[in-house]
Amino acid sequence: MTAYYLTTPIFYVNAQPHLGHAYSTVVADAVCRYQRLLGKDVRFQTGTDEHGDKIVHAAEDAEVSVKEYVDKISAMFKAAWPPLAIVPDTFVRTTDPAHMAVVQGILQQVYDQGDIYFSEYTGLYCKGCEQFLTEKELVDGKCPDHLTEPAKISEQNYFFRMSKYQEWLIDHISKHPEFITPERYRNEVLSFLKEPLEDLCISRPTTRLTWGIPLPFDSRFVTYVWFDALINYLSGLDYPAGEDFARYWPVAEHVIAKDILKPHAIYWPTMLKAMGLEPYQRLHVHGYWNMNETKMSKSLGNVVRPGELVAEFGADSVRYFLLREMSFGLDAGFSKEALMARHNSDLTNDLGNLFSRSLTMVKNFAASVVPQPGMPSAQDQELAEAALAMLGQYREHLDHFAFHRALAAVWEVISRANKYIVSTQPWELVKDPQQAAQLSTVLYTLLETLRLITLTLHPIMPETAAKMAEALGVAGETSLTDCGVWGRLVPGRAITPGAQLFPRLQQEVKDKPQPQKNKTMKEPASEKTPSPEATPEAEGLISFDAFQNLELRVAEIVAAEKIAKSDRLLKLTVKAPEERTIVAGIAQHYQPEELVGRQVIIVANLKPAKLMGVASHGMVLAAKEGDRLVLSAVSGPVANGSRVA
Ligand code: ME8
User: Fold this and answer.
1) How far is Cα 634 from Cα 499, in angstroms, rounded to an integer?
2) Domain containing 133 — which CATH number?
3) Number of the ligand 1 atom closest to the C-alpha atom of 298
4) Quick one: which of 168, 287, 448, 500 is 20 to 30 A from 561 by CA?
């Protein structure tokens, strides 16, 4: 079995985990799950970085011993991952004696071969980065990441002869286009390497810092941060003698954000080269989650706690949002409104509706079993081909960490499938026995499309995908290679429609229509209050002004469900263009699954009213003819929210 090894950075324990840490770890978890779907033997590693000045100061601030402090915060990181459905195989702590022994072994080896030497250095040191910065890297004299002025430090220390490996590194990056991805970061590193590299300071005198790993060849010094932390990627594999090292190191890949590009793209490969090891295969570099245009960071305090989001939205929704919203490599802004919008729109409306409509129809029209498909029509074939093509695109994008693109391809098929329901109208086919074969083909096509969509969602939303697979009767069928083909669902097998996949979360109606404050306007006409302008002859007529007061808009129904205990009312979610709930008395004329995707005309400025406990913001217009009721519509597609006048 082919091996795959992916790591996240090991996080500093000077503060609790925030959404930025969660993002890198969700990314790594999703990719590892994806690689498992491809049948690989996967090793997923994360951990905590526990030495250095910053940690000592944080412990002092918390008034506890450093050991107590690191144990507590490291445990918080470990506990942060399961609620997000993140399941690492190994969790390395740099204070583990086994890790410290590996670091000391490497230091001794590199020292013995002459690549570590003793010298004096003066430079600009950023405590936040725990590294020396060059003048060129500063912005207005400050570290661009920590917004603090670096301190000028001059002291005797041990140095790693990094400059010796500069030419080799340039050559290696040039020959391996995917060594650092996305390309912008590869270019950044190559451009940095145009200047001569300085050697890397790897020690601190114990007179200044004791919370590090003693140098095996000089106990007056400790090493910490980069010559300590980066080595976790090896110590977690029981380097040098462990079988895991032999198995996984040749396929190692790392995920980081751009803040630690230099240590990973320059220090680490040169260190590996000095040790006589092959470098990692690929370094995947992502951008920052920002809050109000500024990097979310513990030192700035503008952080979002992943646990709070999970409590409000659920793990799968948060995972989906993080992977869908950020273009890997670029920065993205975080807001709860954006998360809420994606939850309600992409998950509840698009995916949730497709799933529940399809399974309800299979239950009602096919006795909850997979129907035997007949000859596919062009329309059926088109959806099947789109679903299969999507699988190819999904794999291509995930192989390159382009999660947003992979998910856009999946959602394109979800949207097609929702439209396919509207155009094939299974609720009409079921009325005509002549159309039975066609109905079976439509339902089968929907179920197969859903099965393929489910496959793609296992790495992204594991709990949701498991629920979907269970309902479709394909739990455990997760191999992308074996199951990513059309027609695996066996006719006659039971389908078990389950509960709703995603609850709709309450979103404030931002764009609530306000009555226009035009003093010349009259109250809207009603039967009881005839327009003051109505003359006796014109009784029953309303003025133009009164008509103008009525706000008619085009709205798309994006979700529909029955209201418990009412056989007359349906709860509709519409986009007009803002999302709002409308309760409509149409349950005896329309099934919820035939409504989604239709555009109707609504009265948008009707005073909200509660019907069977559900607040209704507007009214859907329909024509009545005896017992028949037919929903209003416009004769062609127009933008949601367009005024009808
Ligand atoms: O640098 N957006 O640890 P650290 C996206 N211990 N990702 C973010 C982020 C944000 N706003 N903020 C943090 C260290 N991250 C070292 C690493 S590795 C051998 C040693 C994530 O706690 C992102 O992965 O400062 C970033 O690279 C990492 O947290 C920095 O974590």
Assistant:
1) 34
2) 3.40.50.620
3) 12
4) 448
